[in-house]
Amino acid sequence: MLDIRKLRLLRELAHRGTIAAVAEALSYTPSAVSQQLAALEREAGRSLLTRTGRRVSLTPAGAVLVEHTEAILADVERAEAALAVAEAGLSGSVRLGAFPTALRTVVLPAMLEIARTEPDLELTVTEVDPAEVPDRLRGGRLDLALVHEYDNVPSTVGGGIELEPLLDEVVYLASPTPPDEDGTAVVRGHSRSRWIVGNPGTLCHTMAVRTCQSQGFEPRVAHQVDDFATVLRLVAAGAGVALVPQLGATEVPAGVVLTALPMGRRTRIAYRRGSRSQPAFAAVRAELHRAARDLDVMARDSW
Predict the structure, then answer these.
(1) Distances (CA, A) of 80 to 12, 47, 87, 92, 95
(2) Angle between helices 108-117 and 279-302 (to 10 degrees)
(3) Alpha-carbon torsion angle 61, 63, 67, 72, nearest 10
(4) Which of 24, 136, 178, 286 gives 142 a disulfide partner, CB atoms 3.0 to 4.6 angstroms apart?
(5) pTM over 0.70
(6) Is 13:69 a contact under the CB 8 Å cutoff?
(7) How many Å apart are CA 105 and CA 188, to the nearest integer?
(8) 13-40 pLDDT tens trace
């Protein structure tokens, strides 16, 4: 019979690509991972892996087994959720990951409300870049997470993860002076300006670069900053222009002009496939939705 713990290692290898990465993510030694995968091949009675240097790829049989493993692990999540439904009241802990702008605008209000209404439910929060979320969820280091994608930077979460829409945002050009153009031409009008963008590897960095490229130029990057509050202060100081999503523009300093662009950012709740009906997770998701609705109402009132 196939061992579910070994199957989980094979699934992680399919997503991470190297035995060293699997070992680091799951707190194993590389040799232990190799031994477990070799044992799984013996249990399966066929080769599951092909080794090329340090990288390991799946054989056709290995790919088939990973596909079934995703379904098996989802069924385990459903079984655990069904057991939790049978219990009275909410208790235990939920580990939630979120990116900075969502932490202070959506997660914090939800966290305060959960503490008030469900005192036996412990919500712990970790700041995490959306790019890291899928691996952390699959590896069991998070239970829920908020991820986002831009119109020109779609996200890919891979197998074993489900997504639930939470909120949509406008993306603004933040500049020290009002623009003379409309639409995306606003960006083209700053082809010679200094730009403030996120750090390489982040979705926000990619979004800014691709937006400029779509208007026929490469941004002249002057500063690389991930915190949008700091970005807006730099714009106010005349240090450059930037693209800022709505959640990052809740407090706009004097001297900054925000111009809405015909592009957006979407935030979604991510969780392991099969865990949707887990009562504690459902309670946290419900409060996140409530906080997002309240935020939308406040934004409309400010208009």
Answers:
(1) 21, 32, 11, 13, 16
(2) 130
(3) 60
(4) 136
(5) yes
(6) no
(7) 31
(8) 888 888 888 888 788 888 898 899 999 9
